[in-house]
Structure formats: structure tokens, C-alpha cells
What we know:
Shape: globular
Largest sheet: 2 strands, antiparallel
Number of helices: 12
Mean pLDDT: 84
Number of strands: 2
Strand content: under 5%
Order of helices and strands: HHEEHHHHHHHHHH
Radius of gyration: 18 Å
Number of domains: 1
Structural class: mainly alpha
Amino acid sequence: xxxxxxxxxxxxxxxxxxxxxxxxxxxxxxxxxxxxxxxxxxxxxxxxxxxxxxxxxxxxxxxxxxxxxxxxxxxxxxxxxxxxxxxxxxxxxxxxxxxxxxxxxxxxxxxxxxxxxxxxxxxxxxxxxxxxxxxxxxxxxxxxxxxxxxxxxxxxxxxxxxxxxxxxxxxxxxxxxxxxxxxxxxxxxxxxxxxxxxxxxxxxxxxxxxxxxxxxxxxxxxxxxxxxxxxxxxxxx
Length: 237
């Protein structure tokens, strides 16, 4: 891998990843509404959980699931399309993985918006789709089943698909570049999620409702996962 091309891939990925489609959609649909400063009700408590990320989840809460879904799709494509272009241009070198990793950094800490962005789930799956589109589907479903049916923990069901990227990409490719990418995006995602992780731990210590159903009802993404889980027979209403 040539250093110059690696740098170009990183710069392109970061600059494209810094495009905040949550802000773009919000500005087009509801320019008078702020996309920040929202909070989630916590079942069984008077406290609310602040939503600091500017993401598809925030758009769903403000403008509805339709626009939240559109935001997520655009965030996936902003990483997937340039990564696919680099993969097609340089099929024997992992430049596209460099671009995808840099795209995640741009999404989470965007240059154009004072480094205040999302948490990166959509951006990660944009890169994962290009690396192994089958794996992106398999690990997401298996992770959700494991979290809900086995551990009965909504947080695990949300994160397990990302964790499974690491063994899956090793099993599929036996290429350390792919494994390094999977480890990198997991670390970056956890770092970006630190504010939410701290709040969840604090609320659980204070006795907030820890049931799977209550946890999934807290966010638009959780509600969508709950519908999927019900269709798969993983939980009951």
C-alpha cells in the first residue's frame, strides 16, 4: 500500500464523512427547529436522558421515523459509495478500509460542525457493507438475537452486531487489514458512546426500569428493533 494513496483515502473519507445529513435534512424539512438539546424519557424515573448526538436517531425524534430513516441511509451511502469506488480502483489494497475508518471519524467529529456529530452506527455499516455485505446482515441479526433472546439486554442487542464484525471478518478473509478495521471502528464507536454509557450506568444504579421492552421503547431505533424482534418471535408484547 502506497502512503500517498493511503493519505488521500483518509482525507477523502474524513471530509465526506463530515457531511452531517442529520443537519441537512433538518434544515430542509424544519429549518426553524433545533436538532440538538433533546432528551429521552426514562421508564420508572423522572430523569431524562439527554441526546447529544446529531444523528438519524435525533432526526427520528424531531421529525419522525421517515426522515430518520432517510438520514441513516444517506449516512450509510456517504461512506459506502466512496469506499466502493476505492475498492474497485484498488482491489488488491485496503485503501477502502482506510477511507471507511476515516469516514467514521468524520461522522463522529465533523470538521464542518465544530466536531459535534453522531455516534457512527450508520457510518460503520456503510464501510461494513463494502467489506462484506453478507456479514453486515448476518452479524446484525445474530447480535440482536443473542442480546434479546439469550442475555435479554437491549444494550448488548444494539452493540453485539458490531462486536461480531471482528471474528466474522477474520473468518471470511483471514486478512489482518480487515480485522484491524473492525477493531478500530468498535473502539471509535465505544469512545463516541461514552456519554450515553455513563448515563445508562448511572440510571441503572438509580433503579431505572431495566426491562428489555422499556429499553427498546426509549428510542426510535429501539422501537424498530422491538418490531423486528416481535416478528422473529424473540419477545412478547
